[in-house]
Write a structure and sequence with these properties.
The complex is a heterodimer. By secondary structure, chain A is an alpha/beta fold. Chain A is built from twelve helices and 15 strands. Chain A folds into two domains: 2-235, Rossmann fold; 239-348, Rossmann fold. Chain A has helices at 9-19, 34-47, 57-69, 80-95, 122-126, 144-161, 171-175, 217-235, 255-270, 288-295, 311-319, 338-348, and strands spanning 2-8, 24-27, 50-53, 74-78, 100-106, 137-139, 164-170, 177-183, 207-208, 239-242, 249-252, 275-280, 282-284, 300-305, 325-329. By secondary structure, chain B is of the alpha/beta class. In chain B, strands 2-1-3-4-8-7-9 form a seven-stranded mixed beta sheet, with helices on both faces. In chain B, strands 5-6 form a two-stranded antiparallel ribbon. In chain B, strand 5 (151-152) and strand 6 form a beta hairpin. In chain B, helix 2 packs across helix 8, helix 3 (99-109) packs parallel to helix 5 and helix 4 crosses helix 5 (129-137). Chain B is globular. The chains are: A alpha/beta, B alpha/beta. The interface between A and B is large, with 43 and 39 residues.
């Protein structure tokens, strides 16, 4: 069952959520993700779901906490400043082991910054984001099709591992319109949510909470979470490679930056440069091992980001000095160009 | 919570012991017992604290209405977080002050369930003010049990939004000064202008008469929720002898002498 249509990235995320049975969406207005909120308001009305425009981002993520506690597939979305407010709830959700999907259509920062596309929240997204010792799954789409596909996947993985999943897009991906194939995923079945509150019949009470007092209980819980994170690191690393087999210079970029780099690879190859692109799709877990294999073969790596250098730290951690690592970044709504990337590539050769 | 976990261990250990004990020869007529909706973990609130009374009354109402399996409770940050251990219905522990928003999420998924957000004064009327007002304004079909003891209990007795003028707390050493600290917040009155709030009432626990009135109020609020009437809130003026630096009797008297004149009892908004 599939259908090809033209759609905005923000709307594709919303439609994917509807496709996988998300019937509870809670959001607050912020640019550049407003199309998603408006889309959910309309679609939830059509499919008999719940849409609430909350009084704040804090309330929205708290409503997500509640809906997830009751076993529902649920989602909220925002952009940088709003995602900061949601961090309280995300930490509690991670602590209480609840599945949900959070969408960050990134803009420039810090503070109110501006409303242009940026990749300024990589640190926040990949290091848990809030207080405490936890991670969230982080998926980084690079076109409208992936806005749809990775949203489907985010819901599935969140349920599978009982942890929050973050879709890390940006203003360009949210706003642009591209052809999109709508399709129903065929993920393996998931176990029933016997831990959820409500529908209590012939069972002891269920408790959804992130507090663990009593000596050693939190420590044990932290180890339990870590075991899940290890499992995710083992099973869920995703990335895509383009012309990497003979590359001398390896570009590493995600999201919109990766699209720019893809253009640079095509153009550079036409000019006889041996360059390739490594595109992480999961930012957490980061595809470190795959990157190491390349680091041993290439002359250098060039990381391209729409920020002042965030993912480049993960690249350095993975590569551990096996090859030189260069960086090209454009923050604050600036977009790296193919020409800039190719100039940097030549410097690295 | 740790205590529920420890109680399980204790139960396992005592199960072994019980088999070796001789059966009791005495016969008793049981006239008073623990509500089915309460666990056998003893309350560990300070002597004279009101939380145990409010929690018990709440459990009695749930028993009487026969809705235990359809009830979902929220235990707030603060002393009432221990309630996770005491109710025999599903419980959720929201972040500080977010009870009404979390309750909203639960209720929208399970509209045929009874959702009870138990909250203290700091939780509801300070850090959770926005969530409280907007849940009430949406007419969210939930019930807030608001225990107002005019102080932050668990964190060692700081000024609450509902602390009385002149009240000594760890953060108002010379007493609450209206010029510096503002005025005690009347939650029921504040919410009473909101269309979505249908039942707002204030009770206390200083006498059996008042405890019975508290029970009636809680029952009415839950029944209204079951009818889908909208947002309901029962404010209970309660004691905190430890942080008030009083004995339990003095604490009861302080409510009657100091609090009731500022926080009038009775229905602030009826349904």
């Amino acid at each position: 069952m599939s259908e090809k249509i033209l759609m905005k990235g923000n709307e594709a995320v919303g439609e994917a959520a509807i496709y996988v049975g998300c019937r509870h969406y809670f959001g607050y207005p912020i640019t550049p993700q407003n199309e998603l909120t408006a889309y959910m308001a309309r679609r939830m009305n059509e499919v008999g779901g719940t849409f609430i425009q909350s009084e704040s981002e804090i309330a929205a993520i708290s409503m997500v906490f509640g809906a997830a506690s009751a076993g529902a597939r649920t989602m909220t979305s925002s952009s940088g400043p709003g995602i900061s407010l949601k961090q309280e709830g995300i930490s509690y959700i991670a602590g209480a082991q609840l599945p949900c999907v959070i969408v960050n259509v990134m803009r420039g920062g810090p503070g109110l910054g501006n409303i242009s596309a940026a990749q300024s929240d990589y640190f926040q997204a990949t290091r848990g984001g809030g207080h405490g010792d936890y991670y969230t799954l982080v998926l980084a789409p690079y076109n409208v099709q992936e806005m749809f596909d990775l949203t489907l996947l985010a819901f599935h993985m969140a349920d599978q591992y009982r942890m929050p999943a973050l879709l890390l897009a940006d203003g360009i991906l949210g706003q642009m319109r591209e052809p999109l194939i709508l399709h129903r995923p065929d993920f393996p079945p998931l176990p029933p949510k016997t831990w959820a509150v409500g529908r209590m019949k012939d069972r002891p009470m269920n408790l959804i909470s992130s507090i663990r007092l009593g000596e050693g209980r939190l420590e044990a819980h932290n180890h339990d979470l870590q075991r899940i994170y290890d499992e995710v690191r083992k099973n869920e690393v995703r990335f895509e490679e383009t012309h990497t087999e003979d590359a001398e210079v390896l570009l590493v970029a995600f999201g919109t930056s990766a699209r720019v780099c893809l253009g640079a690879v095509t153009e550079g190859r036409a000019q006889g440069l041996r360059i390739g692109l490594f595109r992480p799709i999961t930012l957490w877990p980061f595809p470190s091992e795959a990157l190491v294999r390349h680091a041993e073969k290439v002359r250098s790596i060039l990381v391209v980001e729409m920020n002042m250098g965030q993912m480049v730290e993960d690249v350095r951690l993975a590569v551990e000095g096996r090859c030189p690592i260069h960086f090209h970044g454009r923050p604050g709504g600036g977009l790296p160009t193919t020409r800039e990337v190719l100039e940097k590539v030549r410097e690295g050769l | 919570m740790g205590w529920r976990y420890m109680a399980e261990i204790k139960k396992k250990l005592s199960a072994k012991k019980e088999t070796s004990m001789p059966p009791s020869t005495q016969t008793h007529k049981r006239t008073f017992q623990r509500p089915k909706s309460l666990t056998d973990i003893p309350f560990r609130y300070c002597p004279g604290c009101g939380h145990g009374i409010v929690a018990r009354v709440l459990a009695e109402v749930v028993d009487e209405l026969g809705i235990r399996e359809k009830t979902i409770g929220l235990a707030p940050v603060g002393c009432a977080i221990w309630l996770e251990d005491h109710f025999e219905w599903d419980m959720v522990g929201p972040a500080h002050g977010r009870g009404p928003a979390v309750a909203t999420g639960i209720k929208r998924v399970l509209p045929d369930h009874v959702v009870l957000s138990y909250q203290g004064d700091g939780d509801l009327a300070a850090i959770g003010t926005a969530e409280m007002i907007h849940a009430a304004n949406r007419g969210e079909n939930i019930t807030v049990i608001f225990v107002n003891n005019a102080v932050y209990g668990m964190t060692q007795g700081q000024m609450a939004p509902t602390s009385m003028i002149g009240q000594e707390t760890t953060t108002t050493p010379g007493g609450r000064d209206a010029k510096r600290d503002g005025f005690p917040l009347r939650v029921c009155e504040l919410l009473s202008s909101l269309e979505g709030a249908v039942y707002l009432t204030r009770t206390t626990i200083t006498s059996p008469k008042h405890v019975r009135a508290t029970k009636r109020a809680i029952r009415k609020a839950i029944e209204l929720q079951m009818q889908g009437a909208g947002f309901t809130l029962v404010e209970v003026l309660s004691t905190c002898p430890t942080n008030w630096r009083m004995n339990p009797l003095q604490a009861m008297e302080w409510i009657e002498k100091e609090m009731v004149s500022y926080y009038p009892l009775g229905e602030i908004k009826g349904a």
